[in-house]
Amino acid sequence: MSQPFKFNDILRENPLLIIAIFLAVGISLSSLIPPEYTRLAFYAMAGGVALCISALIYCLSRRPNHTALFAFLLIASSCSIGALNAIHNSTKQHFTWNESRQTYAALITSVDKETAKTWRVTCQVDGRTVLGVLLKDTTRLQPADSILFNARISQPKNQGNPGEFDYASYLKRHNYSGTYFCYANQWTKIGQAQPRIFTSLWFQLTRMHLVKKYKAFFTGQDLAVISSLTLGDRSLLESETRSLFSQTGSAHVIALSGFHLSVIIGIFNFIIYLFVSSRRWRTVCGLLSILFIIGFVFLAGAPVSLIRAAVMAILFQILMLLQRDIFPLNTLALTAILFFLFSPDTLYDVGFQLSFAAMVGIYVILPRIPQPAFIQRYKLARLLYGIFTISLAAQVGTLPLVAYHFHRIPVYSLLTSFIIYPFAYIILLGALLFFLLPFLQAPLALIIGRSTNLMLSSLEKVALLPSPTLSVSPSALQTFLIYTLLFIIVAQTQTWGRKLRLIILLLLLIGASEVGYRTLHPLEPQLVLYNNTAPTIHIIPNRAHSFLWTPSGSPDKTAQQQAEDLLITYHDYTPATSLSIPTQSDSLFCDEHLVMAGPNTIVIPTEHLSINTLSTDLHADVLYITKAFNGPLDTLCKQLHPKVVVFNRNLPEWKLNKYLGEIRSYPVKIHLLANDGAYILPLK
User: Fold this and answer.
1) pLDDT digits over 329-346, tens only?
2) Residue 73 and residue 82: Cα distance in Å, rounded?
3) Cα 372 to Cα 419: distance, rounded to the nearest angstrom
4) pTM of the model
5) Which of 51-65, 172-186, 434-448, 485-499 has the lowest mean pLDDT?
């Protein structure tokens, strides 16, 4: 029979894990502090940290066996340090850009994405990192290019659509201080810098040089997938390819993480222990492997998930060199502690969360999965079963977070593991040899290319299976309860009777929280004008039905995604139906100029709509102005008497200023989608 659960056992075996968990708790709790009390909370936390650490030292020196007091002080100290560090990080002065259009000199540090019409680049402007979108001309851009551009640099901000991803916080966590958009005739290349060796810019140029070697043998999405999987260069990936990997639950393969690093380091260590017998030379090779890990991280652009994997790999390599026992959970916890101390905002990074959840799943759940005796007899069976169990453990660890952040679960992710991992090993090993053995590049390129083709075609067949994803949207509370449930299931220090009672209780709490969420956060009937380049209106009359209006009657992918984000946020996921033009029913009428839902009226004038053709008794709740309208706005307002004039983001700046001047004296509310976000009109 299992022994009863004892917190002291966990404290003695995994003290670093306890510290990491409560550092995260402290960072999370700090976000609940109102901004006006931030300074007061900072000094209070500083005093609390000093007091807790002093008491902890006293406890250790005087009463080392007083475990309960030691545990309390350790938890209090960890929470206080986490909160203090997060508060200090939030009170740093953030640079504010001049919102007027100016001319800037910039150094391009990376080309993040190239499309048929634009370059998306990361650049340094006055020593600060800025994300820019440049409309193309005939100039080719690459890292280390210097440009002059005339644009308005804005603070990172979201589009203001309900349920959208917090892109502004994402940019700030990755040290972007601003964003800008620049037309082709408003920027020019003025030269190229010569980066010093082993700097981040030097690594970017090196990666670009390696991708050029790929281009001599690969093209299209084969080139994009190989560059992403082996070098972390995702600039060539098309949205369809990204969607394919996402739908099949294999997106982690094209985002460099611990899997890729473990394969490469495994190959490196295998070669060392196969050909190097001297302990001294093994130590030298081990130190070289640490330098190789650091170089590979910078070469791949230093994503958070890869940095986490690199820190763990370096710690493992050091412990191996020192011939010390390796405790994976404590090593993982130490990595988390380092992240939380140096960059507390990393806690909110989705890649960081998924990376750690996968590793915890592998270290905690994998040893609990039984291994049938007959599998041990056959090498192939052991290999396949190993792939299955590792994938299962990692996916169980990440599944609640995937559902919480992305609102969908890939159904066939375990199946794709058997497809992805063998091909990924072949591609990674082939790529390593491709660069190390230039005289064998042609045959190696053939193997890598065929493997990539087979992998993509297999994923396409999986994506065609019925219901490749399930739409699930747990709340933060439900996600916490699900992880608590998983902990109870895998914990070995619980009796089965107590386990069963706790499992039933948690399942009841998860169900009750779902009912409570739907009751307390209903999706009210409303009309939503999304902040989108293409004019889009989402009509939501009730829980069961919603409709998307666009002038053409065919909403683009962006509009469909915006509607899906809103519906999932309220746990009312019913895909929005596209409205054909025209549509007429008892409660709904729409054409390319008019949307009438019940008594609510939205007029969308264009150059084809004559003011004289409008009914004289028509009154608009909302007048929605897009770039298709070219008439006198003041005259239209006097005729329709709108309560609100909404300006779409696709209006040129000169036209927007012209219209604002026309209705300056008219008593009407003005809503700029580009600045104010989506406009929501409650359905009467």
Assistant:
1) 788 888 888 888 888 888
2) 14
3) 23
4) 0.84
5) 51-65
Contact in structure between 12 and 493 (CB atoms under 8 Å): no
Q: What is the pLDDT of residues 4-30, one digit of tens each?
A: 445 455 556 667 888 888 888 888 888
Amino acid type, 313: A
Residues 431 and 320 in one domain: yes
Q: Which of 490, 543, 456, 389 is nearest to 247 (CA)?
A: 456
State which H helix or E strand residue 136 sits in: none
In terms of DSSP bridges, do strands 537-540 and 547-549 run parallel, antiparallel, or are they unpaired? antiparallel
Overall number of domains in the chain: 5
Q: Could you tell me which residues are beta bridge partners of residue 527?
A: 539, 681
Between residues 8 and 162, the one the model is more confident about: 162
Expressed in percent and rounded to 5, the helix, strand and coil fractions of the chain are 55, 15, 30
Is 280 exposed, middle or buried, given 0-12, 13-18 or 19+ CB atoms closer than 10 A? exposed
323 & 423 share domain: yes
pLDDT at 477 over 70: yes
Nearest C-alpha neighbor of 554 from the set 577, 532, 570: 577
Which of 560, 642, 650 has its CA nearest to residue 600? 642
Domain-ending residue, one of 90, 120, 152: 90
Asked whether residue 445 falls in the same domain as residue 511, the answer is no
CB neighbours (10 Å) of residue 145? 20
Residue 469 structure tokens = 């994803």
| pLDDT at res. 146 | 92
**Residues 334 and 237 grouped into a single domain:** yes
- Decide: 548 and 538 in contact? Cβ < 8 Å: yes
Asked if residue 640 and residue 597 are part of one domain, the reply reads: yes
Q: Are 255 and 480 in contact (CB under 8 A)?
A: no
H-helix or E-strand containing 680? strand 679-682
Owning domain of residue 36: 7-90
> What are the pLDDT digits (tens) for 420-450?
888 888 898 899 889 988 899 999 999 999 9
Angle between helices 413-436 and 220-231 (to 10 degrees): 80
